[in-house]
Specification:
Layout: H1 2-25, E1 38-39, H2 75-92, H3 97-109, E2 114-115, E3 124-126, E4 132-134, H4 145-162, E5 166-171, H5 188-201, E6 205-208, H6 210-218, H7 223-226, H8 236-253, E7 268-277, H9 282-285, H10 287-290, E8 293-300, E9 306-310, E10 315-319, H11 321-324, E11 353-358, E12 368-373, H12 377-386, E13 390-394, H13 403-413, E14 417-423, H14 437-452
Parallel strand pairs: 5-6, 5-14, 12-13, 12-14
Antiparallel strand pairs: 1-7, 2-3, 3-4, 7-8, 9-10, 9-11, 11-13
């Protein structure tokens, strides 16, 4: 009881103090603008692009504390006191979004570039241009030898047993275009370099998308063009740049016929919804600290026709790209920005299995591509579907089998090509590789140990 009373006292006192400081010095917290306008290009005749007039539920601002005298405390004293109270406040973040806003505002007020989290892997770092990223201060380098060996064995089995070439695609992160502040380290790019090198040494075909993003940065393109400010995912423009890079390889190495207009950004309609998205990193620190993201959606200006099915979710859609592979209706939500995820307007979400059939495919023989992917695939695979007869996407995080189950699944699907798409940080995530024997065994052993210790593990 005493500990609980101390916790409540600390939180209330911190809330009161910071409310006074923030509102007296900053003048209140920002509010989202909702679905104000869709800009950049006029609407087409797709009725799905008519956004609801309902605005998303705003994050309720902390009430003005009234006519309180300005605290007679030095900033050093305030900083020291907040440091001592941060563990208590962090524990309350997920219980009340107002505390997240308050906490983020205090961090901004003090000019902090690093906002620590109860879980170190969710520590948020502000980059030089104001964009946010995750950086785990406790992380150590991970040797990718075992994971690479497993991927080599998997690729060899698929190619030998089903005569389907395997291409590993390395997606970028924000750190492909920006650097962390001095003294903060991230090892994911180095781990990806090692992983790719080991695959290539064993004859597995790879495509590294990161050089294209680095080149774009050197040419003056801003990070925010290709990645969300407050989220770890790439934007439609970022996914399209990745698709352009893949298209070049498909033309040269896989006998794909890809017409120039398909990889030309000028042949796409672009719709922008302003201040609509609070991403995974922004949800940890609040809008006062990180701001809001716009959401831009791309749709082909040329003819398209797809049948998109998600069997386990009862989804079946037929029509142009914008009405089959995209889900603009998901933007018309009254969910709190802390609960909503507008990113899944692409593909509709992370489904265990989804299938897109191109009804006007440039490949009359119906080339089928199976893509094992992380969440970067949501925005990426719709573009891939334009140049393929059929794209089947699998989110391995929701696949409950081992490699033998995956092989049986491959036999049933009879793919012409198998792509594995992951961003750099995904290489550490065992749940993304359940079809690799050691990864699966390690994950099950971890689950067994946690069960014995009474620790809950969510799958």
């Amino acid at each position: 009881m005493t500990e609980r009373r101390n916790t409540c006292t600390a939180v209330i006192f911190l809330a009161g103090l910071l409310s006074a400081v923030i509102f007296l010095l900053l003048g209140g917290l920002p509010q989202p603008c909702g679905f104000a306008q869709a800009a950049r290009s006029p609407r087409t005749d797709h009725s799905a692009w008519a956004p609801s007039h309902r605005a998303p539920m705003a994050v309720q601002a902390v009430k003005r504390p009234g006519l309180l005298p300005r605290p007679r405390l030095s900033m050093d004293a305030v900083t020291d006191w907040i440091d001592s109270a941060e563990p208590t406040l962090n524990a309350a973040l997920d219980r009340d979004y107002q505390f997240i806003e308050l906490y983020g505002a205090s961090q901004k007020l003090m000019g902090r570039q690093v906002v620590e989290d109860v879980e170190p892997k969710y520590t948020v770092v502000k980059l030089a241009n104001g964009a946010l990223t995750f950086a785990n201060p406790d992380a150590q380098p991970v040797d990718m030898t075992v994971r690479a060996r497993e991927m080599v064995e998997f690729a060899q089995r698929v190619e030998e047993e089903y005569e389907a070439p395997v291409l590993y695609i390395q997606a970028p992160s924000k750190l492909s275009m920006a650097q962390l502040p001095e003294g903060i380290f991230d090892y994911s790019d180095a781990e990806a370099d090692q992983f790719l090198s080991l695959l290539e040494a064993q004859g597995v075909d790879t495509l590294d998308l990161r050089p294209a993003f680095r080149q774009a940065a050197q040419e003056g393109h801003e990070l925010e063009e290709f990645f969300f400010r407050t989220d770890h995912h790439w934007t439609a423009a970022g996914a399209f740049l990745g698709f352009q890079t893949l298209a070049d390889k498909l033309r040269s190495d896989y006998d794909y016929t890809i017409y120039p207009e398909i990889t030309d950004p000028d042949h796409y309609n672009k719709y922008t919804f302003h201040n609509i998205f609070l991403g995974s990193q922004g949800k940890r620190v609040g809008t006062a600290y990180g701001g809001w993201d716009d959401l831009e959606i791309w749709s082909p200006a040329f003819q398209s026709d797809f049948t998109y099915t998600v069997p386990m979710s009862g989804i079946e859609r037929r029509g142009p790209f914008a009405m089959s592979l995209l889900f603009p209706e998901l933007l018309a939500t009254e969910e709190s920005p802390y609960e909503a995820n507008p990113y899944i307007v692409y593909s509709g979400g992370d489904f265990l299995l989804a299938r897109a059939v191109n009804e006007v495919s440039p490949h009359p023989w119906g080339r089928r591509v199976v893509v094992l992917r992380d969440s970067y695939g949501c925005a990426f695979t719709p573009f891939l579907s334009i140049v393929s007869g059929e794209v089947v996407t699998i989110d391995p995080r929701m696949f409950n089998g081992d490699q033998e189950d995956m092989m049986e699944y491959m036999e049933w699907l009879e793919p012409d090509l198998v792509f594995v798409l992951n961003t750099t940080s995904s290489l550490r995530v065992d749940e993304l590789f359940p079809y690799l024997p050691t990864a699966r065994a390690d994950a099950l052993e971890t689950k067994r140990q946690e069960k014995e210790q009474g620790v809950s593990h969510v799958w």
